[in-house]
Amino acid sequence: MVTESEIKDQIFSVLAHNRSLNDFQVWLADTAWNPSLDSSPAAVELADEIELFLADFSSKLITKAQLLDKFREIMNHVVANVVVSDAVIIREFSRSSTAAARSYQAFRLPLAV
């Protein structure tokens, strides 16, 4: 089982030069080999996204600098779920100082029986 938070912690280590890219690739392959068994959908989606970026890098479709930029984008992406009365409000945004909310969705929860 791997969590989205654990994956982001490892990405942070790469960006902070505390972990090599190669070590991260090995960790991700070992940890997220079959993340769908125990992991949240968000962790599975994030692991899949990173694996695609790493495949592009390995195939020389993107440079290391571009790969690290993708990692920074991942670190700046935040999803917040807030329950207000009988509605759930989901906001996605980037933590960059110039970015505004990118999406907003609200829906009603089913009434309890």
Question: Helix and strand layout, with pairings?
Answer:
Elements: H1 4-15, H2 21-31, H3 41-58, H4 64-76, E1 77-84, E2 87-94, E3 101-108
Question: What would the keywords be for this entry?
Answer:
113 residues; alpha+beta; three-stranded antiparallel sheet; 21% strand
Characterization of this structure:
48% of the residues lie in helices and 21% in strands. It is globular. It has four helices and three strands, in the order H-H-H-H-E-E-E. A three-stranded antiparallel beta sheet has the order 1-2-3.
Measured between the Cα atoms of the first and last residue, the distance is 34 Å
Low confidence ranges: 96-107
Order of helices and strands: HHHHEEE
Question: How many domains in all?
Answer: 2
Q: What is the beta-strand fraction?
A: 15-25%
Gross geometry = globular
Query: Regarding quaternary structure, how should these chains be classified?
Result: single chain
Count of DSSP strands: 3
Characterize the biggest β-sheet. Answer: 3 strands, antiparallel
Widest sheet: strand ordering = 1-2-3
The structure class reads: alpha+beta
What is the C-alpha radius of gyration, as a whole number of Å? 17 Å
Mean pLDDT: 77
Helix content: 40-55%
In short:
The chain is an alpha+beta fold. The protein has 4 helices and 3 strands; from the N terminus they run ααααβββ.
